[in-house]
Amino acid sequence: MPGTDATSFVFARRLKQARLRSGLTQEQLGIHAGIDEFSASARINQYERGKHLPHLLVGQRLAKALHVPTSFLYEEDDLLAALLVTAARFTREKKKILLVNAETLAQGPSTVRKTK
Protein backbone atom coordinates (compact mmCIF):
# COMPACT_ATOMS: atom_id res chain seq x y z
CA MET A 1 0.00 0.00 0.00
CA PRO A 2 1.72 3.23 -1.08
CA GLY A 3 2.25 5.76 1.65
CA THR A 4 1.50 9.17 0.20
CA ASP A 5 -1.46 10.33 2.27
CA ALA A 6 -1.77 11.98 5.68
CA THR A 7 -2.39 8.64 7.40
CA SER A 8 0.96 7.29 6.20
CA PHE A 9 2.73 10.42 7.41
CA VAL A 10 1.07 10.26 10.84
CA PHE A 11 1.68 6.53 11.16
CA ALA A 12 5.33 6.94 10.17
CA ARG A 13 5.91 9.70 12.71
CA ARG A 14 4.11 7.93 15.56
CA LEU A 15 5.80 4.60 14.84
CA LYS A 16 9.27 6.12 14.96
CA GLN A 17 8.39 8.14 18.06
CA ALA A 18 7.17 5.05 19.92
CA ARG A 19 10.06 2.89 18.72
CA LEU A 20 12.69 5.40 19.84
CA ARG A 21 10.96 5.79 23.21
CA SER A 22 11.00 2.00 23.62
CA GLY A 23 14.71 1.78 22.82
CA LEU A 24 14.19 -0.85 20.12
CA THR A 25 16.00 -0.94 16.81
CA GLN A 26 13.93 -1.24 13.64
CA GLU A 27 14.94 -4.88 13.37
CA GLN A 28 14.05 -5.65 16.99
CA LEU A 29 10.65 -4.02 16.63
CA GLY A 30 9.91 -5.93 13.46
CA ILE A 31 10.86 -9.24 15.04
CA HIS A 32 8.79 -8.50 18.18
CA ALA A 33 5.84 -7.74 15.89
CA GLY A 34 6.19 -11.08 14.11
CA ILE A 35 7.87 -9.88 10.93
CA ASP A 36 10.43 -12.26 9.43
CA GLU A 37 13.86 -11.37 10.86
CA PHE A 38 15.43 -11.11 7.39
CA SER A 39 13.05 -8.36 6.29
CA ALA A 40 12.13 -6.83 9.67
CA SER A 41 14.51 -3.87 9.54
CA ALA A 42 13.70 -2.97 5.94
CA ARG A 43 9.93 -3.15 6.50
CA ILE A 44 10.01 -1.01 9.64
CA ASN A 45 12.23 1.47 7.80
CA GLN A 46 9.68 1.70 4.99
CA TYR A 47 6.86 2.23 7.49
CA GLU A 48 8.84 4.93 9.33
CA ARG A 49 9.60 6.75 6.07
CA GLY A 50 5.94 6.64 5.08
CA LYS A 51 6.73 4.66 1.95
CA HIS A 52 4.27 1.93 2.96
CA LEU A 53 1.39 1.79 5.40
CA PRO A 54 0.96 -1.63 7.00
CA HIS A 55 -2.31 -3.49 7.08
CA LEU A 56 -4.25 -2.96 10.30
CA LEU A 57 -3.27 -6.36 11.71
CA VAL A 58 0.43 -5.50 11.36
CA GLY A 59 -0.26 -2.09 12.89
CA GLN A 60 -1.90 -3.82 15.85
CA ARG A 61 1.10 -6.13 16.30
CA LEU A 62 3.49 -3.17 16.11
CA ALA A 63 1.45 -1.28 18.72
CA LYS A 64 1.45 -4.30 21.02
CA ALA A 65 5.22 -4.67 20.67
CA LEU A 66 5.61 -0.96 21.51
CA HIS A 67 3.12 -1.07 24.41
CA VAL A 68 0.94 1.66 22.93
CA PRO A 69 -2.70 1.57 21.84
CA THR A 70 -3.15 0.93 18.14
CA SER A 71 -5.07 4.19 17.86
CA PHE A 72 -1.93 6.08 18.96
CA LEU A 73 -0.20 5.10 15.71
CA TYR A 74 -2.98 6.66 13.64
CA GLU A 75 -3.85 9.73 15.74
CA GLU A 76 -3.13 13.08 14.05
CA ASP A 77 -3.54 15.29 17.14
CA ASP A 78 -0.40 15.29 19.31
CA LEU A 79 -2.26 15.99 22.55
CA LEU A 80 -4.82 13.29 21.92
CA ALA A 81 -2.04 10.85 21.03
CA ALA A 82 -0.31 11.63 24.34
CA LEU A 83 -3.61 11.16 26.17
CA LEU A 84 -4.10 7.78 24.50
CA VAL A 85 -0.69 6.56 25.64
CA THR A 86 -1.23 7.83 29.16
CA ALA A 87 -4.77 6.49 29.50
CA ALA A 88 -3.71 3.08 28.19
CA ARG A 89 -1.58 2.63 31.32
CA PHE A 90 -4.57 3.21 33.64
CA THR A 91 -6.53 0.49 35.34
CA ARG A 92 -10.11 0.00 34.19
CA GLU A 93 -11.34 1.92 37.24
CA LYS A 94 -9.07 4.88 36.52
CA LYS A 95 -10.20 4.87 32.89
CA LYS A 96 -13.81 5.17 34.10
CA ILE A 97 -12.84 8.13 36.31
CA LEU A 98 -10.99 9.74 33.41
CA LEU A 99 -14.02 9.30 31.17
CA VAL A 100 -16.36 10.91 33.72
CA ASN A 101 -13.97 13.84 34.11
CA ALA A 102 -13.55 14.20 30.35
CA GLU A 103 -17.32 14.22 29.89
CA THR A 104 -17.58 16.91 32.57
CA LEU A 105 -14.96 18.98 30.75
CA ALA A 106 -16.86 18.56 27.50
CA GLN A 107 -20.04 19.97 29.05
CA GLY A 108 -18.59 23.43 29.13
CA PRO A 109 -16.64 25.99 31.09
CA SER A 110 -19.23 26.55 33.83
CA THR A 111 -18.58 23.13 35.37
CA VAL A 112 -14.79 23.11 35.27
CA ARG A 113 -11.86 25.07 36.62
CA LYS A 114 -9.00 25.58 34.19
CA THR A 115 -5.44 24.63 35.14
CA LYS A 116 -2.45 26.80 34.40
TrEMBL record:
Domain HTH cro/C1-type: 15-73
Superkingdom to which the source organism belongs: Bacteria
Segments forming a coiled coil: none
PROSITE patterns: HTH_CROC1
Pfam family, one: HTH_31
Gene3D superfamilies noted in UniProt: lambda repressor-like DNA-binding domains
Record protein name field: HTH cro/C1-type domain-containing protein
Gene source species: Paraburkholderia gardini
Organism taxonomic ancestry: Bacteria, Pseudomonadati, Pseudomonadota, Betaproteobacteria, Burkholderiales
